[in-house]
Amino acid sequence: MNPQPIPHIVDQHAEEAAFLWLLRSNAVSAIHYDLDDLAELDNRVEAHIDGLRVTGDYGWKVCEANLEFKEAGELFISTVLALESNNAEKLKIVYEVLKANTELQNGFVSALGWVNPKFLEGKVSGFLASKSSFWRQIGIAACTVQRVDPGDHLKRGIQSKNHGLCSQSLRAAGKLGRDDLLELIKKQLTSKDENVRFWSAWSAILCADRSESLSAMLAFAKLESSYGLQAINLLLRVYDSKKAKELLALLKDQNKMRLVIQGMGIRGEADYIPWLIDQMSIPELSRLAGESFTLITGVDLAYDDLEIDQPEGFEAGPTEDPEDENTDLDEDEDLPWPDIELVRAWWETNRNQFSSGVRYLMGKEITHQNCVSILKTGMQRQRKAAAMELALMTADGVLFETSAIGSRQQQLLNV
Q1: Which of 18, 58, 120, 306 could form an S-S bond across to 73 if both were Cys, CB 3.0 to 4.6 Å?
Q2: Torsion of Cα atoms, 386 then 389 then 390 then 393, to 10°
Q3: What is each CA distance from 12 to 53, 74, 84, in whole angstroms?
Q4: For 133-190, what is each residue's pLDDT tens digit?
Q5: pTM given for the model
């Protein structure tokens, strides 16, 4: 028997659960969250969901009413409750909300990854067998977040003429290490659709192709594309040192300085550190250069007292001036400000620990063991880098899901 609900408490559970999910969706790519932090945040989300579970239909009615806000967090909470209830009417409601507001699918798919797999039995298979390309796309996404191979559905998705379904299926193939589909994946490299071309090249590289997929990916790095950072994130991990330098030089020539700095951290060669330290004198690039310095050396600028306060007069992101048209958030907000003189002194003292031409991640050579260690103890961006390195080590390597529920990740990593 469910306890008598207290309306304002139930409302608070629904509001806090949706807010914390939104916070979590940002935290999975944050520089200042590690796995323990993520697991703790997940526990807070789960506690509020549990507060809704115990009130039964009353809690559901509150969540259903909140769907009127048309926000991904509210859809996430309602979908979790609907899936766990296995109630056809509740499921129909969240399905219809998603169908009418497809831009909210991040919250819906997140719920599919959140619940225990037993609550997905019969539902995901229904998505995959649907006549609708949209629902088949959702089915592929559900399998991907749960790291379950959708079998032949993936092959059919890659061959689909629907660009959304095709892109989702290509991405899934790379994440799931389906190198048996490599030739099928590469056939999409010449697609007219940009998204399909990108995810075809991305997955082909993850499946160990080092031929035309690299050329296709290079086009995304060279041109003005929303996929620029993701392109260099792969290319600089698989290129040899000479090709990596050529790509970084090209980006410099194009004055894409943020990509150059991020690329040096991705590449991980200590030869780039003196140049990175020089960039720390430029306020707009300082913190980003510090992050790349950390990715290579493993030095925590804040913990090791190599940071300074924000320079006086520096402003990034929105200001309080109502006439300021800049509404973009500060991309480097949570990064420390490096003290360039202290960083330079640290490097002069420790540079002999690093060899020229060797790739490093968090101060150690990139090996399977070291990458697993970073997955256990690193911050989220560092963990994503380690996961990508691990996946690239073998053709059929599954990309570790650093966005999964923290407790599940801890279980997989034995921490």
Answers
A1: 18
A2: -160
A3: 13, 13, 21
A4: 999 999 999 999 999 999 999 999 999 999 999 999 999 999 999 999 999 999 999 9
A5: 0.94
